[in-house]
Amino acid sequence: MATNFVIEGLKATIDNKEILKGINLSMKGGEIHAIMGPNGTGKSTLASALMGHPKYEVTEGTVTLDGEDVLEMEVDERARAGLFLAMQYPSEITGVTNSDFLRSAINARREEGKEISLIKFIRQMEGSMKELDMNAEFAHRYLNEGFSGGEKKRNEILQMLLLEPKLVILDEIDSGLDIDALKIVANGVNKMRNEDRGFLIITHYQRLLDYITPDYVHVMMQGRIVKSGGPELAARLEAEGYDWVKEELGITDETVGQEA
Amino acid sequence: MTLQTILPLNLEALKSLSQQKNEPAWLTENRLKALELASKLELPKPEKTKIDKWDLSDYGTYQAPVKVATLDELPPLISALVEGNESDNLIVQKDSGAIFSSLSDELKAQGVIFTDLETAAREHEELVKPYLTTVVAPDEHQLTALNAAMWNGGAFLYVPKNVEVNIPVQAIFLTENAGATFAPRILVVADTNSSVTYVDNYISSGDDVRVHNGVVEIVAKAGAKVRYATVHQFGGSTTDMSYRRAITENDASIEWIIGEMNDGNTVTDTATVLKGNGSTSDAKIIAVGSGSQRLNYTTKAVHFGKDTTSQMITRAVMRESANAIINGITKIEHGATRSNGEQTEKVLMLSPKARGDANPILLIDEDDVMAGHAASVGQVNPEQVHYLMSRGITRPEAERLIIYGFLAPVVSDIPLERLQTRLQELVERKLGQ
Questions:
Q1: Complex-level ipTM
Q2: Chain A residues 91-120 with a CB less than 8 Å from chain B
Q3: Candidate from B393, B402, B405 with C-beta closest to A76
Q4: Which of A58, A92, A177, B179 is most buried, judging by how many CB atoms fall within 10 Å of its CB?
């Protein structure tokens, strides 16, 4: 069964301030959706709320993955159900090596007694690291500690490659990446692209979409998706910016939940 | 002002006990003087821990040890700690004295002496007398005076000039009968350019209340390298009061590796006096507190020599309502030019009732030095837990990874693989996982 991911009327608050004001989005396996929009319009909040970050409270709406209620699940259950969020600011964790972390994450998906063998794990990890042009020493470094911005992003993609999720959310994966790293990350995503897997790419630049062609492009403003279209929408946003969208919709301040 | 201290034994009893054990006259004299001192000295005052309310009077009485000839006769608690050929160089003390002692022919041939301290005082006076009670002075406070007066069993390790001992020697100290005085004293003398690793374990059995009053003295002569590793895992009924000191001469080095895994109240104080030029001290302390433990750990480095270096790292995890005070003191004396002292104390608290207090102190009386400190006290970071969980890892497993990760940078730096594994196991036991 191809993946089916549906968000309906999703509202979420942070510190009692409403940031998401009713998001509707339906995705199927094999599709790539891009969510674009200026800063402060609720894009990253959407990503965090979907993953279940404790800071955000979902007040209304439903999210289902293959018919299962995502919002009822704990964070780890969401991940095991197939949700993956490549974070904008991944945590640094001293004392936990990247490889121990990755192995724990893989084994969390397996039954007790059926853990991945060390040899197989190392082979998979090293293979994926090579694809991402990551130095082998990153396996033994503490998780994200002292990694540059670009190294952290690659490490997120490495996790995506190894965990093989059904629904991938990439939150500003392109920020802080130079053009070579951007191409490597895009290759990783394109390689993972298949009929069962959906991608939700959050970005405010067009440039990532030069390497990953989306099927659908959505513009987010004021905590809602205000405009949707095909790849041509991304191209127009790149060429003309967001002002024409605001004008068309009569929006003066596109942000949401910002202090006056 | 006269101080009314009720001592656990009187001069007459101490004198006759010493004579009964055939101790040399100088040692009897030494003990009696220390006991007199004890009656005049006050208890130590560890920073921010009030020990005057602690029951530190339960020393019990001396009970002559029953020696065993072979390892098979050792209590299972002890044999569990001995693996493979570790019994070749091993001292075991149960309650008031040594019950087993061995030294391999290889080390004997190199001139190494490794025996309980009582035997050493009788048989190697020339090597014991000049050092005993010189590193941890009896007049420091009541507890060091009491140990100097009533110490029993213990261990003496002597490594001759230029001798490198390649395998660790080990000692195990067990308090089983709470009614028996348990006051081991360790003396390590590493002669010029020698090197050695000494590992010991402190364990207990039984639920009756008792006190361990322990002292460790280490003398590292010029160019000597001493590694001293100790793991304390007393049960909740034992109060542990341990004072450890090393003196380093020119270019000597001391490495402390300390696992504070007791279940009872604990005060430990580990210090290096960097006397000689170019000498170094490195201390690593791993601690886990649980239940309602009151803990006070002090590490100290005192720089006298020029170009001396000290490094002190303490990592402590506190759960339930355990309370730890962690003091780091770097003291650089006037004249100790180009010295460098660094210290780090970190506490991770796992429950709202757990307490940790890290107190880094730098006392610098010389301009031409480097010194630094870092201290932190905190709880498991919820962002980190979320990050791990977002990859499918369960909350308990995520927390476990973070807690072990907190200790890992120090544990993974321990050069003895067996000790690493043992500490890991003890940490797991104490964390109840």
A1: 0.96
A2: 91, 93-96, 100-101, 104-105, 108-109
A3: B393
A4: A177
Helices first, then strands: H and E counts in chain B? 10, 19
**DSSP 3-state of B196:** strand
Burial environment of residue B216 by CB neighbours within 10 A (0 to 12, 13 to 18, 19 or more): buried
Contact with chain B for residue A140, Cβ under 8 A: no
> Among B382, B394, B404, whose Cβ lies nearest the Cβ of A54?
B382
Residue of A nearest to B386 (CA): A53
User: Which chain B residues contact residue A146 at CB under 8 A?
Assistant: none
Quick check: B162 and B132 in contact, CB under 8 A?
no
> How close does chain A come to B410, measured CA to CA in Å?
9
**What ranges do the domains of chain B cover?**
11-276
What residues contact residue A60 under an 8 Å CB cut-off, 6+ apart? Answer: A9, A10, A11, A22
pLDDT tens, residue by residue, A55-67:
999 999 999 999 9
How far is the C-alpha of B93 from the C-alpha of B76, rounded, in Å? 14
pLDDT digits (tens, 9 = 90+) for A128-178: 999 999 999 999 999 999 999 999 999 999 999 999 999 999 999 988 888
Domains in chain A, start-ordered, CATH in brackets?
4-90+165-249 (3.40.50.300)
In terms of C-beta density within 10 A (0-12 exposed, 13-18 middle, 19 or more buried), how is residue A84 classed? buried
**Which residues of chain B neighbour A99 with C-beta distances below 8 Å?**
none
